[in-house]
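[Meeting: bench + compute handoff]

Bench side (C.D.) handed over the final construct sequence. Compute side (W.E.) agreed to return the predicted structure before the next meeting so the bench team could plan truncations. Sequence as handed over:
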Amino acid sequence: MTDIISVIAPINMAVIKYWGKRDEKLIIPLNDSVSGTLDPKVMCAKTSVCARSAFEEDVLWLNGIKESITSERLQNCLKKIRELAVEQKSVDEEFLKFKVHICSENNFPTAAGLASSAAGYACLVTALATLYKVKTDISALARIGSGSACRSVYGGFVRWYAGSNPDGSDSIAKPVVDSSHWPDMRVLVLVIADTKKHTSSTKGMKTTVETSELMKHRIQVSVPSRIEKLCEAIVKKDFPTFAELTMKDSNEFHAVCLSAFPPCVYLTNTSLKIIEMVHYYNNICGTIKVAYTFDAGPNACLYLLEEEVPKILSVIKYFFPFSSEDFIKGLKAPPIKEFPIESHIYKSAPEKDLINYIIYTKVGEGPIVLKDGPHLLNEHGKPHEKKI
């Protein structure tokens, strides 16, 4: 049996948002949602796990810091996988008694509205399922850790079905298309803040469901009428329709958050300026070329086709001038192609460094089991010491 299992898993950026639960404990959503899985080679969580007789207790290290492993969601994942291992007799009885060491880290900000929990739990359950050799729907396992994590277990564009069964057995994710379907789809993540957000998604959802009148309309009318059209646009590679529906859903999502009492405010002034910039660009182009979407945080995710990247980077540089030479991270960005901008847009020079940096990436594949490492755990089952 392989001693240490290591996995990398991607974040996903929703184009139809998940917000609100039908069942808090089982993490069953009130509505279907759709997301694009982003290239795990650019933004990912990485997790290493191992189980040994010498371990005295289950232990978790997150981004180099030893954390409590008593989290109900994490315990639910461990319990479910161990139960499946017993049912399937996938490992021997002695192995089931072993304690587990888990080490996980992200190469992007945690709890800043960049779907860190989705990548983290997709990574964790894939690694544990591999360790215990269980055969099951990984999306259902990931869901009980973090709702949106069920979408990160597949590449391409993914739909999470809310389902109707009380036990959540039909609340699973399924691919709409795989990562090769729309090869020229690109994503720019504009990182405004990489600090922990003021209102967590879990708290924000609960408040919104309990107090927002707009939420009812979203669940009953808006999402059902929008989601089929969006999935069809993805299949047909109809970018203008895809982009319009994506932006409308993002706008409605944040309007619903604002209608909660007390309101959940995730967008900042810079977020609103990005929205203005995208509409300006699309208007100049005479058709929709770029779509914005914002999860529960201020950072923008721009979906666009590859040919638009050089031009929109020029526009971003004008609206949000930056000082750093290492401003664009991720995939190698193409040379910026100057785009004509009306001189009267700003009466004075725009403020510098409102955006911290940009991550340039694409729609990619789901979790990857690393056959030969490298691992986050050393031969003793503990994190490697960081070199200073």
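W.E. noted at the follow-up: The first helix runs from residue 72 to 88. C.D. will use this when planning the next construct.
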